[in-house]
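Good morning C.,

I know you're traveling, so I'll keep this short. The sequence:
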Amino acid sequence: MVTTSTARPKVSATAQSAAAAKSKPRQARAPKWFHRTTGALSRVSPGLASAVFAYLFTRPQRQKLPRRERDWLLQATATPLKLTDGTQVPLYEWRDARPLAGVRDEAPLPTVLLVHGFGGRAGQMGGFAAPLVAAGYRVIAFDAPAHGAAAGSRSSLPEMLEVTQQVAARLGPLAGVVAHSNGAAAVIAALTRGMQADRVALLAPMPDLESFIQRLASQLGFSASVAKRAQSRVEARYGLPFSALKAATLTPQLTLPTLILHDSGDRIIPLQEVEDLAQVWKAARLEVSDGLGHNRLLRDAAVIAAVVAHLGVATPR
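The tokens, ready to paste straight into the viewer:
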């Protein structure tokens, strides 16, 4: 494991501590009225509060597709993939369509899979498509259930794990995977369950779902005990404990070259959690940026270039 920093000048310990305190990202919080309501509900009816919080925790918010993402998706070929439970998700494929001797080249190409995060969509990952195609790859992304153009209203990390495994199995051994946030956590778990890839790049990965649900509960005004109850509800629904998805316990068995990119100002996933993960993941290299937050990593030119450089030029299988 090698830890690097792309934007942290060396300063004295005193100045460094002061700067860290000043620049530490503030956690997003719900409005005061919402905090008062959820706090009161947590005290009066913890069971009902946990049901409300579990509902919120598993309902990703869909957002209007920005023009840049629409343009990226219009450059792809979209096809439906039927999952084992009968639902369908859209797959988006980018590849070099230049003809070879007057005939479209349909030879198999090394494939890179793009995996979005919770509340995200395939279009968010579209900035990686053209540079990876130029490097010789076929690039595939998908909208997970309840995200993007896919049907559904409920989702969580266990479901993202299952969908990622099914998509990867459909594509065969992967040359690379680029994943964000909750999707990065799903990829880590999938790799320990048989998903094959040569290299991986993880952007703002979520190392610990249990600590995340506690932080989110605090931000929304729910009590810690309500968060535990909500966690139990989600675990029971998907039949998978959050502890089984903790990255620090999974990554020591992973030896494939891994690049982790995280921003010091990420308000969703604390940098310290990612640094702790990198410490125990010997095959991973962490690079830290400043000023990109949780989502702007996905469209930053330097980040995209670092990912493409990590995956390298495609080598035909």
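Safe travels,
E.
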